[in-house]
Design brief:
The complex is a heterodimer. Chain A is of the alpha/beta class. Chain A is 39% helix and 21% strand. Chain A has one domain: Response regulator (Rossmann fold). A 5-stranded parallel beta sheet of chain A has the order 2-1-3-4-5. The chains are: A alpha/beta, B alpha+beta.
Chain lengths: 140, 569
Amino acid sequence: MQKLACVLLVDDDSTTNYLNQLLLKRLGVAEQVLVAINGKEALDLLHVHCQTPFANCPVLILLDVKMPVMDGFAFLEAYEQLPADQRQATTIVMLTTSLHPRDVERVQQLNIGGFLNKPLNREKVDDILKKHFGRQLPAE
Amino acid sequence: MNTPAPSAAELARVNEELRQQLEEAQDLIHAIRTGAVDALAVQGAEGPRIFTLQGADQSYRTLIEQMNEGALLLATDATVLYCNASLAELLHCPLAEVMGRSFDEFVPPGFQETWAALMERGWTGKSRGELPLQTQTGALLPFSVSMNVLAFNETPALAVIVTDLSAQREITAIRAQVAEQNALLDRKNEELKREEAARLVGERAAAEATRVLEGIPQIAWTANPQGINTSLNRRWFDYIGQENAHGSDLGWVEHLHPADRPATGQRWVECLASGEPYEVEYRFRNRAGDYRWMLGRALPSRNAQGEIIQWIGTCTDIHEQKLALERIDQAQQQLRDNNEQLTRANADLDNFIYTASHDLKAPISNIEGLLDALLLELPAATAQSEEVHPLLDLMQDSVNRFKRTIEHLTEVSRLQKEHGGLTVPVDLAAVVHDVRLDLEPVIQSTGARLDVDVHAATVLFSEKNLRSVVFNLLSNALKYRAPTRPPRVCLRTWAEAGYTVLEVRDNGLGIDTAYTDRLFGMFQRFHDHVEGSGIGLYMVKKMVENAGGRITVASTLGQGSTFTVHFIN
């Protein structure tokens, strides 16, 4: 399977980031995995990595909802305002634990690739690949 | 023709004569000028000609001089030929200056026409009228004038009598004042008579009322239209402890609770002014010094003219009712406060459950992930070893337990929000049938007998929740079976006014009635030998109550339990 060029993980829980990084590495999904601990840091990373045509701009962002400084919703609002070159071909998938009913409605109205319940696992990664990138993991 | 020339002596004689005449004339004019002698000055073609009044009767002249009215004679051009001293005085002008002057000068500009008309009529015979004259000082005074044509030595003159009206006017004014004063006195008298009559009527009415009021079991009173107490019946004096007193009590306010005085007084004043019925609640101090609540009511009584002649009122003891009402009010307030507190507590709890389930989920799924990662990293021999393998299994069990608990919490949190949510008519028999199929393995393994007696019953409920209710009740009946006998479970339904009733009866362990209250609480478990989360019955109760129904339990320890659910139709 052809690896994705770059995947960005955004979560304030470092253990979750560690496990997800480990999972993606084990599954051989991405050439590069970037990690941000909140929405603000994610925006900074996008700014750096999407600057030039040769840059390594993330094609998939796995986004947590509840984060300090800038949460998932605020990040999406800011993301909409970015110049086109910084949000090229990027799929955003929200990762949630249990959603408060008022947030469910909010998430469903968002223009994103989808949302998944934590924890991330092999099946969920495979689903994303099939749905958004037209590829799938090799059989175990 | 020759006329003989006069002799010198003749000329001297004529001359002497003429000189004498001239002297006389000069004296006369002087006398007239100084007012010493009355005279007539008649305007002739060759200038004014002077006539003495020697021809007039001396007595008339005296009369004219004596009278208070002004008298004057006017020439056709209104020159004053003669006037008496009174006129000069009336006009505040020296006599000498009046005579020879045109009378027009004393007529104010606005009355010249009136004056001219009077004169014109006067010259034709007679005329009279009233007009103001301007005195030398400039003041205007009212006068009446009457005119008459006279002839003096064949020269016509207008005799004018001028009467000062000032005094007369004053008298008229005084008369008017007197009349007014008299009228006022008459009115006052009338009023006094009416008041007296009204007072008598009022007194009679009051006396009558007082007699009637004595027969009333409440405190009763009368007051005059001004609001002053006129009588109180014996009940009042008994109440305040003055058995020997009677009649009115102007000191009644002393017994009124100070806090009730302003409002009572204000309302009383309003009612006195408007005639509206009076109604207040106030406290009066009794003989023991205790204040008791009274309902005070009063109505005005009126005479035939509709005027208020007195007020009749009563005071009814409402102390007990008032205190009861206050207690109810207090209780209601307490209830409202409690409700508010409970609502807040519920909201807090709800929030807590949500946050707890949410915040616990992340670390437990991390622990699970880390455990998986560890398993992959461990050499197979280590993982399968006698020491490590049970540890890994126990860790996985604990993680699973933890996750289940969180799921229950999430479920509870969902139910809290579902309150009053969507309900549809659900076929109870179909649900029971499905649950029975799901539980068939347990029924088989325990050798249980399940009797179902469901009549075509439809309940308004969420289908998923109804399933959950039936499942929980049936599986509990099997789970808490008595070890000494095969479980026997009986499920039946029937209709009651407004309800469909579901009953699940078992012959299981039963529970101590002391615990039945806590049976439906969250995380309550009464049997530790059986696997359970302690959330099932809490959820059942919650679902049933959310849909407007209720659940009860009857149980005997060691014999079995009966759960009864009332679904609202």
